[in-house]
Amino acid sequence: MKASFLLAGIASVSVASAHTIFAQLTADGKTWPVSHAIRTPSYDGPQTDVRSNNLACNGPPNPTTPSDKIITVTAGTNVSAVWRHTLQSGPNDVMDPGHWGPVMAYLKKVTDAKTDKGVGDGWFKIQEGGYTNGKWATNVVIDNKGNQVITIPSCIANGQYLLRAEMIALHGARSSGGAQLYMECAQIEIKGGSGTALPKTYSIPGIYKSNDPGLLIDIYNQKAGFKYMIPGPPLFNC
Ligand SMILES: *[C@@H]1O[C@H](CO)[C@@H](O)[C@H](O)[C@H]1NC(C)=O
Ligand SMILES: [Cu+2]
């Protein structure tokens, strides 16, 4: 097992520039066009400083383009954050499969989803995947044609939200700051929720520390079946 980890690690180095973007959203059975209601960058690079304000909704060195659109989503349904290597890539070009790591999604309730920068308190985690049965969550998304399936909680208040989808690549995470964090924010309006739950919220930046065990880790030197600690706050459940 260890030997195969090492080989895969070497293989990933040659294609480490193959990053990724949360490019489009599928909601209520409709797949919206690339960049519709999502602040997408033209360059697919990661954020690596977990203290940066650009950890909320991406930004320099990957400048993002604003969107004046909002996508309506029914509470309690599944949406897919659709990941692509570039804004022009298809479902078979999601990300370098050697980019092993966790996958997460967060929501933040906002007054105006088109303009809110997303920086600061208000975020809660609604989906996460780590390392299960020998497979990293990033590979689950790649094998699912780039679809990160996210259940929108049924119990939260209706209104405008930012939906922040995130994939983290750990191939360089053996040194501090080596984890590659990929995220974009979609602008959504949740309808049909029961509106009673008040999730505990967290600040971005603030949810991660550079030495979190899930961000500072030599993934090629773990025992088979090791327990990976997904970074960030606990998952919110209705
Ligand atoms: C929503 O996604 C979850 C997790 O993948 C799955 O278990 C569930 O069956 C899905 N629900 C629907 C209605 O598709
Ligand atoms: Cu990359």
TrEMBL record:
Places the protein is found: Secreted
Chief subcellular location: secreted
Lineage: Eukaryota, Fungi, Dikarya, Ascomycota, Pezizomycotina
GO BP annotations, alphabetical order: cellulose catabolic process
InterPro entries referenced in this protein's UniProt entry, alphabetically: AA9, AA9_LPMO
Keyword vocabulary terms for this entry: Carbohydrate metabolism, Cellulose degradation, Copper, Disulfide bond, Glycoprotein, Hydrolase, Metal-binding, Monooxygenase, Oxidoreductase, Polysaccharide degradation, Secreted, Signal
Swiss-Prot/TrEMBL catalytic activity: [(1->4)-beta-D-glucosyl]n+m + reduced acceptor + O2 = 4-dehydro-beta-D-glucosyl-[(1->4)-beta-D-glucosyl]n-1 + [(1->4)-beta-D-glucosyl]m + acceptor + H2O
Name used for this protein in its record: lytic cellulose monooxygenase (C4-dehydrogenating)
The EC number(s) this enzyme carries: 1.14.99.56
The keyword Cytoplasm belongs to this UniProt entry's keyword annotation: no
Essential cofactor(s): Cu(2+)
